[in-house]
Protein backbone atom coordinates (compact mmCIF):
# COMPACT_ATOMS: atom_id res chain seq x y z
CA UNK A 1 0.00 0.00 0.00
CA UNK A 2 1.30 3.44 -0.93
CA UNK A 3 2.38 5.59 2.01
CA UNK A 4 0.56 8.80 2.84
CA UNK A 5 2.34 11.78 1.34
CA UNK A 6 2.96 14.42 4.03
CA UNK A 7 5.29 16.47 1.83
CA UNK A 8 4.34 20.14 1.35
CA UNK A 9 1.34 19.77 3.66
CA UNK A 10 0.17 22.94 5.42
CA UNK A 11 -1.79 22.24 8.61
CA UNK A 12 -4.05 25.12 9.60
CA UNK A 13 -5.03 24.59 13.24
CA UNK A 14 -8.40 26.18 13.95
CA UNK A 15 -8.27 24.96 17.57
CA UNK A 16 -10.76 27.06 19.60
CA UNK A 17 -10.47 30.05 17.29
CA UNK A 18 -13.95 29.33 15.96
CA UNK A 19 -14.88 30.80 19.38
CA UNK A 20 -17.78 28.37 19.69
CA UNK A 21 -19.50 30.30 16.89
CA UNK A 22 -20.45 28.04 13.97
CA UNK A 23 -20.95 30.91 11.54
CA UNK A 24 -17.57 32.42 12.48
CA UNK A 25 -15.88 29.02 12.00
CA UNK A 26 -17.39 28.62 8.52
CA UNK A 27 -16.24 32.13 7.55
CA UNK A 28 -12.68 31.31 8.62
CA UNK A 29 -12.70 28.06 6.60
CA UNK A 30 -14.07 29.77 3.49
CA UNK A 31 -11.54 32.59 3.70
CA UNK A 32 -8.64 30.17 4.16
CA UNK A 33 -10.01 28.01 1.36
CA UNK A 34 -9.77 30.95 -1.04
CA UNK A 35 -6.09 31.40 -0.12
CA UNK A 36 -5.28 27.70 -0.40
CA UNK A 37 -6.91 27.47 -3.81
CA UNK A 38 -5.29 30.67 -5.05
CA UNK A 39 -1.82 29.47 -4.01
CA UNK A 40 -2.55 25.87 -5.10
CA UNK A 41 -1.16 24.15 -2.02
CA UNK A 42 -2.16 21.04 -0.12
CA UNK A 43 -3.74 22.06 3.17
CA UNK A 44 -5.43 20.37 6.11
CA UNK A 45 -7.84 22.29 8.35
CA UNK A 46 -7.38 20.92 11.86
CA UNK A 47 -9.88 20.81 14.70
CA UNK A 48 -9.34 19.90 18.35
CA UNK A 49 -11.73 17.51 20.09
CA UNK A 50 -12.29 17.18 23.82
CA UNK A 51 -15.33 15.42 25.22
CA UNK A 52 -15.73 17.84 28.10
CA UNK A 53 -18.22 15.77 30.09
CA UNK A 54 -15.50 13.21 30.75
CA UNK A 55 -12.33 15.16 29.89
CA UNK A 56 -12.74 17.58 32.83
CA UNK A 57 -12.86 16.28 36.39
CA UNK A 58 -16.36 16.82 37.87
CA UNK A 59 -15.00 18.95 40.72
CA UNK A 60 -13.39 21.43 38.30
CA UNK A 61 -16.10 22.00 35.70
CA UNK A 62 -17.44 25.13 37.41
CA UNK A 63 -14.04 26.51 38.36
CA UNK A 64 -12.77 29.61 36.57
CA UNK A 65 -9.36 29.69 38.28
CA UNK A 66 -7.89 26.70 36.38
CA UNK A 67 -6.09 27.45 33.08
CA UNK A 68 -7.94 26.59 29.87
CA UNK A 69 -11.07 25.01 31.38
CA UNK A 70 -13.31 28.12 31.15
CA UNK A 71 -12.18 28.68 27.54
CA UNK A 72 -12.96 25.08 26.60
CA UNK A 73 -16.52 25.40 27.88
CA UNK A 74 -17.02 28.88 26.39
CA UNK A 75 -16.01 27.69 22.90
CA UNK A 76 -17.72 24.31 22.95
CA UNK A 77 -19.40 23.06 19.75
CA UNK A 78 -21.62 20.05 19.28
CA UNK A 79 -20.82 17.12 16.98
CA UNK A 80 -23.51 18.28 14.55
CA UNK A 81 -21.71 21.64 14.32
CA UNK A 82 -18.44 19.91 13.48
CA UNK A 83 -20.22 17.92 10.78
CA UNK A 84 -21.08 21.22 9.08
CA UNK A 85 -17.55 22.57 9.52
CA UNK A 86 -16.00 19.40 8.08
CA UNK A 87 -18.34 19.54 5.10
CA UNK A 88 -17.17 23.11 4.45
CA UNK A 89 -13.52 22.02 4.72
CA UNK A 90 -14.09 19.45 1.99
CA UNK A 91 -16.06 21.94 -0.12
CA UNK A 92 -13.02 24.23 0.00
CA UNK A 93 -10.70 21.46 -1.23
CA UNK A 94 -8.95 21.05 2.10
CA UNK A 95 -8.35 17.90 4.16
CA UNK A 96 -10.20 17.43 7.48
CA UNK A 97 -7.77 16.78 10.34
CA UNK A 98 -8.22 16.61 14.10
CA UNK A 99 -6.35 16.41 17.39
CA UNK A 100 -8.05 14.19 20.00
CA UNK A 101 -7.25 14.87 23.64
CA UNK A 102 -9.07 11.81 25.00
CA UNK A 103 -10.02 8.33 23.84
CA UNK A 104 -13.67 9.26 23.34
CA UNK A 105 -12.60 11.87 20.79
CA UNK A 106 -10.76 9.22 18.76
CA UNK A 107 -14.11 7.48 18.28
CA UNK A 108 -15.74 10.77 17.20
CA UNK A 109 -12.95 11.34 14.66
CA UNK A 110 -13.63 7.93 13.15
CA UNK A 111 -17.38 8.54 13.12
CA UNK A 112 -16.91 11.83 11.24
CA UNK A 113 -14.55 10.18 8.72
CA UNK A 114 -11.77 12.66 9.41
CA UNK A 115 -8.72 11.79 7.31
CA UNK A 116 -5.65 12.72 9.40
CA UNK A 117 -5.04 12.59 13.12
CA UNK A 118 -2.68 14.67 15.23
CA UNK A 119 -1.10 13.91 18.59
CA UNK A 120 -0.45 17.18 20.42
CA UNK A 121 2.74 17.86 22.37
CA UNK A 122 0.87 17.71 25.67
CA UNK A 123 -0.20 14.14 24.75
CA UNK A 124 3.24 12.93 23.65
CA UNK A 125 3.64 11.01 26.93
CA UNK A 126 -0.03 9.96 27.14
CA UNK A 127 0.42 6.28 26.22
CA UNK A 128 -3.28 5.32 26.59
CA UNK A 129 -4.31 8.11 24.21
CA UNK A 130 -1.53 7.37 21.70
CA UNK A 131 -2.43 3.68 21.63
CA UNK A 132 -6.11 4.52 21.15
CA UNK A 133 -5.28 6.99 18.36
CA UNK A 134 -2.95 4.48 16.68
CA UNK A 135 -5.70 1.86 16.67
CA UNK A 136 -7.69 4.11 14.30
CA UNK A 137 -5.06 3.40 11.60
CA UNK A 138 -5.18 6.95 10.22
CA UNK A 139 -2.19 8.91 8.90
CA UNK A 140 -0.87 10.61 12.02
CA UNK A 141 1.28 13.62 12.83
CA UNK A 142 2.89 13.82 16.26
CA UNK A 143 4.27 16.95 17.92
CA UNK A 144 7.27 16.79 20.23
CA UNK A 145 7.16 20.00 22.28
CA UNK A 146 8.75 19.38 25.68
CA UNK A 147 9.38 15.67 25.02
CA UNK A 148 12.71 13.97 25.63
CA UNK A 149 14.30 11.78 22.97
CA UNK A 150 13.35 8.70 24.99
CA UNK A 151 9.73 9.84 25.10
CA UNK A 152 9.72 10.46 21.34
CA UNK A 153 11.26 6.99 20.85
CA UNK A 154 8.43 5.51 22.90
CA UNK A 155 5.79 7.34 20.88
CA UNK A 156 7.41 6.26 17.59
CA UNK A 157 7.53 2.66 18.83
CA UNK A 158 3.73 2.64 19.27
CA UNK A 159 3.20 4.13 15.81
CA UNK A 160 5.60 1.64 14.21
CA UNK A 161 4.00 -1.28 16.03
CA UNK A 162 0.64 -0.26 14.55
CA UNK A 163 2.22 0.17 11.09
CA UNK A 164 0.95 3.74 10.73
CA UNK A 165 1.96 6.30 8.16
CA UNK A 166 3.21 9.11 10.38
CA UNK A 167 5.18 12.33 10.48
CA UNK A 168 6.96 14.04 13.38
CA UNK A 169 6.76 17.76 14.15
CA UNK A 170 9.52 19.64 15.89
CA UNK A 171 7.61 21.95 18.19
CA UNK A 172 8.28 24.37 21.03
CA UNK A 173 5.28 24.69 23.34
CA UNK A 174 5.71 28.32 24.31
CA UNK A 175 2.89 30.61 23.12
CA UNK A 176 4.15 32.70 21.34
CA UNK A 177 7.69 31.33 20.97
CA UNK A 178 10.55 33.86 21.10
CA UNK A 179 13.23 33.40 18.43
CA UNK A 180 15.92 32.32 20.88
CA UNK A 181 13.74 29.35 21.90
CA UNK A 182 12.90 27.98 18.43
CA UNK A 183 15.71 25.34 18.37
CA UNK A 184 15.42 24.67 14.63
CA UNK A 185 18.50 22.40 14.73
CA UNK A 186 16.17 19.82 16.28
CA UNK A 187 14.70 19.29 12.79
CA UNK A 188 18.05 17.84 11.67
CA UNK A 189 18.29 15.71 14.80
CA UNK A 190 14.85 14.21 14.15
CA UNK A 191 15.66 13.60 10.47
CA UNK A 192 18.81 11.69 11.38
CA UNK A 193 17.28 9.69 14.22
CA UNK A 194 14.08 8.69 12.41
CA UNK A 195 15.38 8.03 8.93
CA UNK A 196 12.71 8.08 6.25
CA UNK A 197 10.07 9.71 8.48
CA UNK A 198 8.75 13.10 7.26
CA UNK A 199 9.78 15.82 9.71
CA UNK A 200 7.76 19.00 10.09
CA UNK A 201 7.66 22.27 12.02
CA UNK A 202 4.73 23.21 14.25
CA UNK A 203 5.16 26.89 14.85
CA UNK A 204 4.07 29.39 17.47
CA UNK A 205 6.36 32.32 16.66
CA UNK A 206 5.19 35.83 15.76
CA UNK A 207 2.73 35.32 12.86
CA UNK A 208 4.29 38.25 10.98
CA UNK A 209 7.71 36.54 10.95
CA UNK A 210 8.10 34.63 7.66
CA UNK A 211 11.84 34.03 7.97
CA UNK A 212 11.33 31.13 10.39
CA UNK A 213 9.36 28.95 7.96
CA UNK A 214 12.12 29.48 5.40
CA UNK A 215 14.79 28.44 7.89
CA UNK A 216 12.74 25.39 8.91
CA UNK A 217 12.43 24.35 5.26
CA UNK A 218 16.17 24.84 4.77
CA UNK A 219 16.75 22.57 7.78
CA UNK A 220 14.68 19.85 6.09
CA UNK A 221 11.11 20.31 7.35
CA UNK A 222 8.59 19.14 4.74
CA UNK A 223 5.26 19.90 6.44
CA UNK A 224 4.20 22.91 8.48
CA UNK A 225 1.56 23.80 11.04
CA UNK A 226 0.33 26.94 12.70
CA UNK A 227 -2.75 28.23 14.51
CA UNK A 228 -5.19 30.23 12.39
CA UNK A 229 -8.25 32.40 12.91
CA UNK A 230 -9.93 35.73 12.07
CA UNK A 231 -10.52 38.89 14.06
CA UNK A 232 -13.92 40.57 14.04
CA UNK A 233 -15.49 43.23 16.19
CA UNK A 234 -16.59 40.41 18.48
CA UNK A 235 -13.78 37.85 18.20
CA UNK A 236 -10.13 38.66 18.88
CA UNK A 237 -7.08 36.64 17.86
CA UNK A 238 -4.29 35.56 20.21
CA UNK A 239 -0.64 36.52 19.64
CA UNK A 240 0.46 33.19 18.12
CA UNK A 241 -2.44 32.64 15.67
CA UNK A 242 -2.31 33.86 12.08
CA UNK A 243 -4.93 35.89 10.29
CA UNK A 244 -5.76 34.93 6.69
CA UNK A 245 -3.44 37.71 5.48
CA UNK A 246 -0.59 36.29 7.57
CA UNK A 247 -1.35 32.73 6.44
CA UNK A 248 -1.08 33.83 2.80
CA UNK A 249 2.22 35.58 3.46
CA UNK A 250 3.51 32.52 5.37
CA UNK A 251 2.68 30.06 2.56
CA UNK A 252 4.09 32.36 -0.12
CA UNK A 253 7.29 32.66 1.90
CA UNK A 254 7.62 28.88 1.94
CA UNK A 255 7.01 28.61 -1.79
CA UNK A 256 9.68 31.23 -2.38
CA UNK A 257 12.30 29.38 -0.33
CA UNK A 258 11.38 26.07 -1.91
CA UNK A 259 12.30 27.54 -5.29
CA UNK A 260 15.54 28.78 -3.78
CA UNK A 261 16.38 25.40 -2.23
CA UNK A 262 15.75 23.48 -5.45
CA UNK A 263 15.59 19.71 -5.83
CA UNK A 264 16.81 17.22 -3.21
CA UNK A 265 18.90 15.20 -5.69
CA UNK A 266 21.76 16.35 -7.89
CA UNK A 267 20.48 17.08 -11.38
CA UNK A 268 22.47 17.85 -14.56
CA UNK A 269 23.65 21.44 -14.79
CA UNK A 270 21.82 23.91 -16.98
CA UNK A 271 23.18 25.01 -20.35
CA UNK A 272 23.76 28.49 -18.87
CA UNK A 273 25.92 27.07 -16.08
CA UNK A 274 27.85 24.82 -18.48
CA UNK A 275 28.61 27.76 -20.78
CA UNK A 276 29.73 29.93 -17.86
CA UNK A 277 32.08 27.23 -16.53
CA UNK A 278 33.45 26.38 -19.96
CA UNK A 279 34.80 29.91 -20.40
CA UNK A 280 36.99 29.35 -17.30
CA UNK A 281 38.22 25.84 -18.16
CA UNK A 282 41.45 24.78 -19.87
CA UNK A 283 41.65 23.02 -23.19
CA UNK A 284 44.09 20.24 -24.19
CA UNK A 285 46.62 21.22 -26.88
CA UNK A 286 49.38 19.29 -28.67
CA UNK A 287 52.89 20.25 -27.58
CA UNK A 288 54.39 18.66 -30.69
CA UNK A 289 53.28 17.05 -33.92
CA UNK A 290 51.23 13.90 -33.26
CA UNK A 291 50.59 11.09 -35.72
CA UNK A 292 47.24 9.36 -36.12
CA UNK A 293 47.20 6.08 -34.18
CA UNK A 294 49.99 7.09 -31.80
CA UNK A 295 49.58 6.88 -28.03
CA UNK A 296 49.46 10.36 -26.52
CA UNK A 297 51.54 10.82 -23.37
CA UNK A 298 51.31 13.60 -20.80
CA UNK A 299 54.50 15.25 -22.11
CA UNK A 300 52.95 15.40 -25.60
CA UNK A 301 50.27 17.90 -24.59
CA UNK A 302 49.69 21.02 -22.49
CA UNK A 303 46.66 22.60 -20.81
CA UNK A 304 45.67 26.20 -21.47
CA UNK A 305 42.65 28.45 -21.65
CA UNK A 306 40.48 29.12 -23.49
CA UNK A 307 39.15 25.73 -24.58
CA UNK A 308 38.12 25.48 -28.20
CA UNK A 309 34.65 24.59 -29.41
CA UNK A 310 34.49 20.78 -29.83
CA UNK A 311 37.91 20.59 -28.18
CA UNK A 312 38.99 18.27 -25.37
CA UNK A 313 39.02 19.89 -21.90
CA UNK A 314 41.60 19.13 -19.22
CA UNK A 315 39.09 17.35 -16.99
CA UNK A 316 38.53 14.70 -19.70
CA UNK A 317 42.22 14.04 -20.34
CA UNK A 318 43.46 10.49 -19.69
CA UNK A 319 46.95 9.13 -20.16
CA UNK A 320 47.16 6.74 -23.12
CA UNK A 321 44.61 8.31 -25.48
CA UNK A 322 45.15 7.20 -29.09
CA UNK A 323 45.33 10.05 -31.60
CA UNK A 324 42.36 9.96 -33.96
CA UNK A 325 44.20 12.01 -36.61
CA UNK A 326 47.41 13.96 -37.18
CA UNK A 327 47.80 16.98 -34.90
CA UNK A 328 49.98 20.05 -35.44
CA UNK A 329 51.81 21.92 -32.69
CA UNK A 330 49.38 23.98 -30.51
CA UNK A 331 46.35 22.35 -32.15
CA UNK A 332 43.46 21.49 -29.78
CA UNK A 333 42.74 17.78 -29.33
CA UNK A 334 39.27 16.70 -30.41
CA UNK A 335 36.58 16.39 -27.69
CA UNK A 336 35.54 12.95 -28.97
CA UNK A 337 38.81 11.56 -27.60
CA UNK A 338 37.15 11.73 -24.17
CA UNK A 339 35.11 8.71 -25.23
CA UNK A 340 38.09 6.38 -25.59
CA UNK A 341 37.99 3.02 -23.79
CA UNK A 342 38.98 3.21 -20.14
CA UNK A 343 41.58 0.86 -18.75
CA UNK A 344 40.40 -1.81 -16.31
CA UNK A 345 42.04 0.18 -13.51
CA UNK A 346 40.07 3.28 -14.48
CA UNK A 347 36.85 1.25 -14.69
CA UNK A 348 37.46 -0.10 -11.18
CA UNK A 349 38.08 3.44 -9.94
CA UNK A 350 34.80 4.70 -11.42
CA UNK A 351 32.87 1.79 -9.88
CA UNK A 352 34.38 2.35 -6.45
CA UNK A 353 33.67 6.08 -6.55
CA UNK A 354 29.98 5.25 -7.00
CA UNK A 355 30.13 2.68 -4.21
CA UNK A 356 31.82 5.09 -1.86
CA UNK A 357 29.12 7.66 -2.59
CA UNK A 358 26.41 5.15 -1.63
CA UNK A 359 28.25 4.14 1.55
CA UNK A 360 28.63 7.81 2.51
CA UNK A 361 24.94 8.41 1.84
CA UNK A 362 24.05 5.43 4.04
CA UNK A 363 26.55 6.56 6.72
CA UNK A 364 28.36 3.22 6.61
CA UNK A 365 32.09 3.20 7.37
CA UNK A 366 34.29 0.35 6.13
CA UNK A 367 37.29 -0.81 8.16
CA UNK A 368 40.80 -0.65 6.70
CA UNK A 369 41.24 -4.43 6.90
CA UNK A 370 38.18 -5.28 4.82
CA UNK A 371 38.79 -7.11 1.53
CA UNK A 372 36.91 -5.72 -1.46
CA UNK A 373 36.18 -7.39 -4.77
CA UNK A 374 34.04 -6.52 -7.74
CA UNK A 375 31.89 -9.39 -8.96
CA UNK A 376 31.20 -9.00 -12.71
CA UNK A 377 29.62 -12.15 -14.10
CA UNK A 378 29.77 -11.13 -17.77
CA UNK A 379 32.89 -8.99 -17.65
CA UNK A 380 33.62 -5.60 -16.13
CA UNK A 381 32.18 -3.80 -19.16
CA UNK A 382 28.73 -5.18 -18.25
CA UNK A 383 29.12 -4.55 -14.53
CA UNK A 384 26.34 -1.94 -14.51
CA UNK A 385 23.95 -4.69 -15.66
CA UNK A 386 25.19 -7.69 -13.69
CA UNK A 387 27.29 -7.73 -10.56
CA UNK A 388 27.91 -6.46 -7.08
CA UNK A 389 30.71 -5.06 -4.97
CA UNK A 390 31.45 -7.48 -2.12
CA UNK A 391 33.20 -6.28 1.03
CA UNK A 392 34.50 -9.15 3.17
CA UNK A 393 34.47 -8.10 6.81
CA UNK A 394 35.21 -11.44 8.48
CA UNK A 395 35.25 -15.11 7.41
CA UNK A 396 35.63 -17.71 10.17
CA UNK A 397 33.07 -20.31 11.29
CA UNK A 398 30.79 -17.33 10.85
CA UNK A 399 31.06 -14.84 8.02
CA UNK A 400 30.01 -11.25 7.46
CA UNK A 401 29.99 -9.44 4.13
CA UNK A 402 28.55 -6.19 2.84
CA UNK A 403 27.13 -6.29 -0.68
CA UNK A 404 26.60 -3.13 -2.69
CA UNK A 405 24.61 -2.97 -5.90
CA UNK A 406 24.18 0.14 -8.00
CA UNK A 407 20.72 1.12 -9.27
CA UNK A 408 19.08 -1.42 -11.62
CA UNK A 409 21.87 -3.96 -11.15
CA UNK A 410 21.22 -7.71 -11.10
CA UNK A 411 22.94 -10.75 -9.64
CA UNK A 412 22.15 -13.98 -11.56
CA UNK A 413 20.69 -17.29 -10.34
CA UNK A 414 23.06 -19.41 -8.24
CA UNK A 415 23.15 -21.58 -5.12
CA UNK A 416 25.61 -22.64 -2.44
CA UNK A 417 26.04 -26.25 -1.34
CA UNK A 418 27.72 -25.46 1.98
CA UNK A 419 26.80 -21.90 2.96
CA UNK A 420 23.63 -20.72 4.69
CA UNK A 421 23.19 -16.97 4.54
CA UNK A 422 20.89 -14.29 5.90
CA UNK A 423 20.52 -10.90 4.24
CA UNK A 424 19.66 -7.75 6.18
CA UNK A 425 18.88 -4.64 4.15
CA UNK A 426 20.76 -1.59 5.44
CA UNK A 427 19.97 0.86 2.65
CA UNK A 428 17.79 0.91 -0.45
CA UNK A 429 15.67 -1.89 -1.90
CA UNK A 430 16.23 -5.49 -2.93
CA UNK A 431 14.14 -8.02 -4.82
CA UNK A 432 15.21 -11.58 -4.12
CA UNK A 433 13.88 -14.52 -6.09
CA UNK A 434 14.32 -17.84 -4.27
CA UNK A 435 13.37 -21.04 -6.05
CA UNK A 436 11.12 -19.04 -8.39
CA UNK A 437 9.30 -17.05 -5.70
CA UNK A 438 9.90 -13.26 -5.53
CA UNK A 439 10.37 -11.37 -2.27
CA UNK A 440 10.51 -7.57 -2.01
CA UNK A 441 12.76 -6.27 0.76
CA UNK A 442 13.28 -2.81 2.22
CA UNK A 443 15.52 -1.31 4.87
CA UNK A 444 15.59 -3.45 8.03
CA UNK A 445 14.15 -6.60 6.42
CA UNK A 446 15.79 -10.02 6.94
CA UNK A 447 15.89 -12.83 4.39
CA UNK A 448 17.20 -16.40 4.83
CA UNK A 449 18.78 -18.43 2.02
CA UNK A 450 19.41 -22.07 2.96
CA UNK A 451 22.00 -24.29 1.21
CA UNK A 452 20.97 -25.70 -2.19
CA UNK A 453 18.34 -22.96 -2.69
CA UNK A 454 18.48 -21.23 -6.05
CA UNK A 455 18.43 -17.47 -5.60
CA UNK A 456 19.06 -14.27 -7.53
CA UNK A 457 18.60 -10.65 -6.59
CA UNK A 458 18.31 -7.20 -8.11
CA UNK A 459 17.71 -3.60 -7.05
CA UNK A 460 15.77 -0.69 -8.50
CA UNK A 461 17.31 2.28 -6.70
CA UNK A 462 20.52 0.72 -5.35
CA UNK A 463 21.08 -1.36 -2.23
CA UNK A 464 23.55 -2.08 0.55
CA UNK A 465 22.88 -5.23 2.51
CA UNK A 466 24.66 -7.29 5.08
CA UNK A 467 25.20 -10.99 4.51
CA UNK A 468 25.67 -13.01 7.69
CA UNK A 469 26.49 -16.64 6.93
CA UNK A 470 28.37 -19.76 7.77
CA UNK A 471 31.92 -19.97 6.41
CA UNK A 472 32.33 -18.77 2.83
CA UNK A 473 34.21 -20.98 0.35
CA UNK A 474 35.36 -19.65 -3.02
CA UNK A 475 34.30 -22.87 -4.82
CA UNK A 476 30.79 -22.91 -3.36
CA UNK A 477 28.85 -20.77 -5.86
CA UNK A 478 27.08 -22.67 -8.64
CA UNK A 479 25.46 -20.62 -11.43
CA UNK A 480 22.53 -21.51 -13.66
CA UNK A 481 24.15 -19.81 -16.68
CA UNK A 482 26.81 -22.10 -18.10
CA UNK A 483 28.73 -19.12 -19.45
CA UNK A 484 29.31 -17.90 -15.91
CA UNK A 485 29.93 -21.39 -14.56
CA UNK A 486 32.62 -22.06 -17.18
CA UNK A 487 34.66 -18.96 -16.34
CA UNK A 488 37.59 -19.20 -13.90
CA UNK A 489 36.91 -17.22 -10.74
CA UNK A 490 39.55 -14.58 -11.49
CA UNK A 491 37.78 -13.73 -14.79
CA UNK A 492 34.52 -12.83 -13.06
CA UNK A 493 36.04 -11.19 -9.97
CA UNK A 494 38.35 -8.21 -9.65
CA UNK A 495 40.10 -7.64 -6.35
CA UNK A 496 40.27 -3.98 -5.38
CA UNK A 497 43.75 -3.10 -4.17
CA UNK A 498 44.73 -0.15 -1.98
CA UNK A 499 41.32 1.51 -2.02
CA UNK A 500 40.72 3.86 0.89
CA UNK A 501 37.04 3.86 1.87
Could you characterize the architecture of this molecule?
The protein contains 14 helices and 24 strands. By secondary structure, it is of the alpha/beta class. It has three domains: 9-261, Aldolase class I (TIM Barrel), CATH 3.20.20; 273-339, Antifreeze-like/N-acetylneuraminic acid synthase C-terminal domain (Type Iii Antifreeze Protein Isoform Hplc 12), CATH 3.90.1210.10; 344-496, Sandwich (Jelly Rolls). An eight-stranded parallel β-barrel has the order 1-2-3-4-5-6-7-8, surrounded by four helices. A hairpin with a 2-residue loop joins strand 14 and strand 15.
Summed up:
With 501 residues, the protein is α/β, with parallel strands linked by helices. Helix content is 29%, strand content 24%. Helix 1 (22-39) packs parallel to helix 4, helix 1 (22-39) runs parallel beside helix 10 (244-261) and helix 9 packs parallel to helix 10.
What distinguishing features does this structure have?
single chain; 501 residues; alpha/beta; TIM Barrel; Type Iii Antifreeze Protein Isoform Hplc 12; Jelly Rolls; 3 domains; eight-stranded parallel beta barrel; seven-stranded antiparallel beta sheet; 14 helices; 29% helix; globular
Amino acid sequence: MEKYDFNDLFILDLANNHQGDLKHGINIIRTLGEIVNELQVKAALKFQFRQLDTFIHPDFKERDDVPHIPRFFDTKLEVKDYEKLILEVRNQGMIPMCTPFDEESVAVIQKLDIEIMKIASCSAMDTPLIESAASAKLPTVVSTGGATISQIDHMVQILEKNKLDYAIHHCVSIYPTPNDKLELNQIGLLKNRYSGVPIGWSTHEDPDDTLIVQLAAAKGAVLFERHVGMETDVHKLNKYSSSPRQVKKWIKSYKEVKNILGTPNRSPSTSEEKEALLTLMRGVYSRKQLKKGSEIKRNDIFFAMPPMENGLISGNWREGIIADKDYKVNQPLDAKLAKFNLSDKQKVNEIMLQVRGMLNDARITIGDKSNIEISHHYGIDRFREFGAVIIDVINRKYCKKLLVQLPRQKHPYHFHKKKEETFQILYGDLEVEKNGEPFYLKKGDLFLVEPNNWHKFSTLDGVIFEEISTTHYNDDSFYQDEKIASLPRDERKTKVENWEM
